[in-house]
Amino acid sequence: DKGNHRHFMEKEIYEQPEIISHALGHYIDFANHTVKSTDKAIDFSKLSGLAISACGTAYLAGLVGKYWFERYARLPVEIDVASEFRYRELPLSPTQAALFISQSGETADTLASLRYCKDEGLKIGAIVNVRESTIARESDAIFPILAGPEIGVASTKAFTCQLAVLASLSIAAGRARGTVSEAEEKAMVKHLAEMPRIMSKVLNEIQPVIETLSRDLSRFKDVLYLGRGTSFPLAMEGALKLKEISYIHAEGYAAGELKHGPIALIDEHMPVIVIAPHDRFFEKTVSNMQEVAARGGKIIFITDEKGAAASKLETMATITLPNVDEIIAPMIFSLPIQLLAYHTAVFMGTDVDQPRNLAKSVTVE
Ligand code: M6R
């Protein structure tokens, strides 16, 4: 049932605050501001490293997770798309654990990667939406994302719930390994607890500017997304979402890679969407933005209040989000990215929930 919404995708975008709040309840103790100890089958305190594998949007959630596990838990992360991971003959050790992220829990390549790691003797964790799925069944630990059924082929709420689970797990791992203090845990958990309310506010506020912008975006044939740090996987997720449902060609790049190639493409026909909260990477990303502007590129700037105030560059549009803590920024910044793809596709009249050539669950290699 779509409720008042035109598409399942729209409904799933708008239900994120409520769903994430529910999902977080499984991983954090709101009263004491601590992470709950979840599935004990994986003991993060003793691990030498983590292997993560997944496909599509789930892989991009894993890439954000890599930054978190490395930063907060000081755990080295090896991550790859499952179709490569399964054939890489990656040397692994039973002192590592492996995490597989899958909304459906049935993706063939992800399952094959899981079995590879199992044969190598690693403990297996599944971050899944469908708890009765094959991937969940074959895992030692199950970390449910609790997103409820996702009908739209383009993943939205599963992505932000995967991020919420990965954030919680990386804090839990940090606590277990002594790399996150009690005070740091409390502070980060407080930010996570505030996130649903901020998400609702953002969804309400950005709608008009995104709708206007989508009309302009639908005239272009190519779009480039740039980001640094955890905004880099978001840039790729933005591009994936746009290409899946609007069929506009889009690429997501690490902002620092701009001058190593894609800058050759910059002209007034290819807008550049820059995802840059005012974090420790901001100045560097702005200097990449300057390089785009200097070549006549059109910029769509997705930033926060501090970032909007700090940049003097002329943009085609600026989407200004509230200032939020780093740990929740990827979830908050996912919202404009999802809505932009959604409205652009609606404007172009494509089949948003069932885009051509795509299947919700890819159970063959
Ligand atoms: O069910 P899974 O999470 O394993 O699916 C993985 C990908 O097929 C999926 O995320 C795909 O990329 C989506 N269509 C993205 O919107």
From TrEMBL:
Gene Ontology cellular-component annotations: cytosol
Subcellular location: Cytoplasm
Enzyme Commission designation: 2.6.1.16
UniProt KW NAD keyword: no
Chain segments annotated as coiled-coil in the UniProt record: none
Enzyme active site: 360
Domain SIS: 38-179, 209-355
Entry's Gene Ontology BP terms: amino sugar biosynthetic process; carbohydrate metabolic process; fructose 6-phosphate metabolic process; protein N-linked glycosylation; UDP-N-acetylglucosamine metabolic process
Reactions the enzyme catalyzes: D-fructose 6-phosphate + L-glutamine = D-glucosamine 6-phosphate + L-glutamate
GO MF assignments: carbohydrate derivative binding; glutamine-fructose-6-phosphate transaminase (isomerizing) activity
UniProt keyword terms in alphabetical order: Aminotransferase, Cytoplasm, Glutamine amidotransferase, Repeat, Transferase
Main location: cytoplasm
Superkingdom per UniProt: Bacteria
EC main group: transferase
Role of this protein: Catalyzes the first step in hexosamine metabolism, converting fructose-6P into glucosamine-6P using glutamine as a nitrogen source. Involved in the production of the root hair deformation (HAD) factor specifically on medicago.
Assembly information from the UniProt record: Homodimer.
The name this protein goes by in its record: Glutamine--fructose-6-phosphate aminotransferase [isomerizing]
Gene: glmS
Part of the intact protein present: 244 to 608 of 608
